[in-house]
Amino acid sequence: MILEKAPASVRGELTRWMLELQAGVFVGNVSALVREKLWQEVCGKLSGGAGILVHNAANEQGFSVRFWGLPSRTIEDFEGLLLVRRP
């Protein structure tokens, strides 16, 4: 999970479940249920911020990406291949 302009309280809450490798970058191995609940919680508290959730999925690349708000980087889908577009 990558958060931009997230309140310190949200970041602190996520550190209970995942490691914060860099400011706003969280990595962890949680169940799908916990992942969904954390994502809902984060999206509800990100007023003015943005979030990107990357998790494993049964597709060709092995992962799926979800967004909340307007992150600085976007993901473009080119015939099923996800690529990052930088501004």
Give the CATH topology.
Alpha-Beta Plaits
Weakly predicted, low-confidence segments: none
State the order of secondary-structure elements, H for helix, E for strand: EHEEHEEEE
Cα distance, first to last residue? 20 Å
Fraction of residues in helix: 10-25%
Overall shape = globular
Strand elements, count: 7
Q: What does the oligomeric state look like here?
A: single chain
Provide a quick synopsis of the model.
The chain is an alpha+beta fold and 87 residues long. Helices cover 24% and strands 38% of the residues.
Describe the structure.
The chain is α+β, with helices and mostly antiparallel strands and 87 residues long. It has a single domain (2-85), classed as Alpha-Beta Plaits (2-Layer Sandwich), CATH 3.30.70. It contains 2 helices and 7 strands, in the order βαββαββββ. It has helices spanning 8-14, 32-45, and strands at residues 2-4, 19-22, 25-27, 50-56, 63-68, 74-78, 81-85. A hairpin with a 2-residue loop joins strand 2 (19-22) and strand 3 (25-27). The longest helix is centred in the middle third of the chain and has 14 residues, at 32-45. 10% of the residues are buried.
